[in-house]
Amino acid sequence: MSILAGSQSRVLVQGMTGWAGRHYSSSMLDYGTKVVAGVTPGKAGMRFLDLPIYGDVATATREHRIDVSIVFVPPDHAGAAMIEAIEAEVPVIVTVTERVPLHDMLKVRAALAGSRSTLVGPNSQGILSPGQCKIGVMATASARPGRVGVISRSASLTSEVIAQISAAGLGQSTTVGIGGDPICGLTMHDCLSLFSKDRDTDGVVVIGEIGGSQEEELADFIAEARPKMPIVATVVGRCAPPKRRMGHAGAFAAAPSDADGKIRALERAGVTIAPSPHLIGETIRNALRHADGAASQVA
Length: 299
Hints:
By secondary structure, the chain is α/β, with parallel strands linked by helices. The protein has 2 domains: about 10-120, NAD(P)-binding Rossmann-like Domain (Rossmann fold, 3-Layer(aba) Sandwich); about 140-299, Rossmann fold. It is about 35% helix and about 20% strand. The protein contains 9 helices and 14 strands. The strands form 2 sheets. Strands 3-4-2-1-5-6-7 form a 7-stranded mixed beta sheet, sandwiched between helices. Strand 6 (about 90-95), helix 4 (about 100-110) and strand 7 (about 120) form a beta-alpha-beta unit. Helix 7 (about 215-225) packs parallel to helix 8.
């Protein structure tokens, strides 16, 4: 079992005929993901990668069952593309596009309210359920099926963490890149809530970074919900200079939401903090062993 998407998910690619859409659609198809169609305004009726292209999402959803849409659309049009998918009631929308204008994302957030859609992103590296589906731009060479969920704001560190978890003999149930832009859809605590209900996820790794308040909100959720599975976290950006954006549009060091403040909040909620990013695999392995030992003593 996985969260958000799995082996039977049928995927629509918005912006398939652009360079990024073509490149990553080919990669997703090669992985075995069920990409069924694409959308590019003005190109309805053509075939691309041997798949039908439609002029809009509504038409595509009338012709195919669509479970997930992935958006490879430039920033100035990405907001409209997301709203189009929301209005077509696509269940899960993954947006890879980075730096979508904030006013556009406010409109997207308003469209999401009360809708049937869940948005992952923008600035998301996607969803990866090893052996089932890849929806996005994540590297897959080190990914292995397993029982550790991964929630990440950092694309590059995600690849490193996946490799560590696989090397530790654990593997991943699903990895979700929630994105690094200031306004996004699915949050860290939304994602953890999904993992806590997944019978095939035994533990979760959280990759946080400076900027925003998602890690603090996650800590509040954990303190209240007290999920039974072990949770390991790292927060990068401890050496970032204050009041300077670092990489992602949403990565902005400003007290009290700097890296140390986020780490303290997570520790107070009972999260295990990895001593260093290069020790995440070892830390989640030890946390799972400790949890198994405690469960055996109770039994």
